[in-house]
Amino acid sequence: MKYAPRSRRWLSGVALFFAAVAHVSCRMPGSQQHHALGSLEGQRTPTSVGCGCCRGSSEVASVVAVDQNPSQHAEPKTPAAFKGDPYLLDTDPVTGAKLPAIDTLVIIEHEGRELRFASDKNVASFRADPSKYLAAVDEKLIAQQLPFYPLKTCAVSGEKLGDMGKPVDLIYRNRVVRLCCASCKPEFEKDVARHVAKLDAAVVEVQAKMYPGKRCVVSGEEFGGDMGDPIDHVIGNRMVRLCCSGCVKKLRKDPLKYLSMLETRKSPDDKPDDSESKPHKHGNH
């Protein structure tokens, strides 16, 4: 067996080291996949340092074996933090009267949840004794959301609801979450994002099959085409299909307006009526 001169072998070793570093740290432009460092044993002497994307070329160095199956190494996707749903009742938490126009409301945040009032006076009354009013608000939210609730099992333990006695209906930032027992509440609060993400996925799985309409309720734009794939946004345990992410803000500002539009649709082929917004382009958001 012939060996390369010592100086050549030393330089090859240095090149091998930097090639490995390049593959570990480099990132394909526009891609979420990082290169994984493969085994260096048995690889032949490098002829180049750095991978193809580092050099702006499709050529990939032969030094490191790049795993072509990123699913084996990819980090599990972390659910986004649940910021809560907007206030989904059409009545003032203090007086119980119908709320006025959306632009005149007084909107506050109380312990992480949004509440909407008709006046500053009502806000002051609420702040003086929140517990006096929240029980009635929670009761109304539960009645509103239960008909759309998708899970028959506890959102935390997976136990069948009812097997542990009457289910616990938890209101977390205006969202109804059903638990098999009170003991699951602390576990839910330890990892809210994961449990709500599971609930959202169940909402989409159930409601997507019967979703009414092929157009965005916010923009009136037909799904697909130039707008790309639609976005399924969950609010109050209801799925709202939007043409693009730019419509989420408008939906959350006036959710009852757009949820009512869904209720007037009878089939997936229904076209938007005159009350729905005109088609738009992404730049209009």
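The above is record 1. Record 2 follows with the same two-line structure.
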Amino acid sequence: MFQATRFMGNIKAVFTSLFLLCSLAGYSKDKLNFQMIYVKGGSFYMGSDDPHYRNEKYDNERPVHRVFTSSYYIGKYEVTHAQWRAIMGIYPMAYNGVDYGNKNCDDCPVVKVSYDEVQEYIRRLNIKTGKHYRLPTETEWEYAGRGGKYTQNFKYCGSNNINEVAYYGKRNGTTHVVGQKKQNELSIFDMSGNVMEWCSDWYGEQYYLGTIDSLDPRGPVKGSEHIVRGGSFYDEEDVCRIVNRAHYVPKTSMWNLGFRLAMDAENTTITTTTTTTTTTTVLGNGATVTDSVVMDSTVIK
């Protein structure tokens, strides 16, 4: 009798263990199913010349300049605690010994992750999934924030009313569950407010001057700080504008700084056509003047 009871107990323990393993496997698989939004390439005018933001603090938002971008994918949501733990197994190291109120909120964005830690996360994620996730470039981030080809030229990502789209302005605040505010024109959430987001580019104060009419600019070749975009629950309205540019050294980790993922789009075709237009003008004295204008048009499919 004792042996039979012990045998049944062992069988029950085995099935319990198998159930837990299957549950964890399903949980990890689900959390790694990132929802990515397709952003069709095109051109847009990057930066701002808003007269309300003309002081030295906002100089790096100028000049307004046209750039071209290929098609790509960007995360619908910021990367969450659950998605971080599914790859790294633990919370970020900076959480150790700190009483962070939303640490156990699986669907809140992961924060206090340095640029270097994010790169390690992406490296492991790509090994596990066989995909090629990365951080968005600054250009990709702003284009997606503006709504891509569907832009309505809002001040914030999805609205001119910041309260519709962002958690912001709470100095004693905290992060919030992703996707609770209004989405933007591309159905992307929280690009204004909640947490600031790392971009892949090095920061250059005068960088915009060298990227006029450029295709897929990826930032200066080197630098000491990386671009951060979007503002956060902690920041005021001006920092949550689509065009605002912040920058931090790679080892920075803060309670209002996280990230979202991007990925190249396959089968993207870029075609550049050069057209020359010649105009001849006859002057009053019978002389003629010929002008030639050369224009490049870029088509991205």
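The two ends are 74 Å apart (CA to CA).
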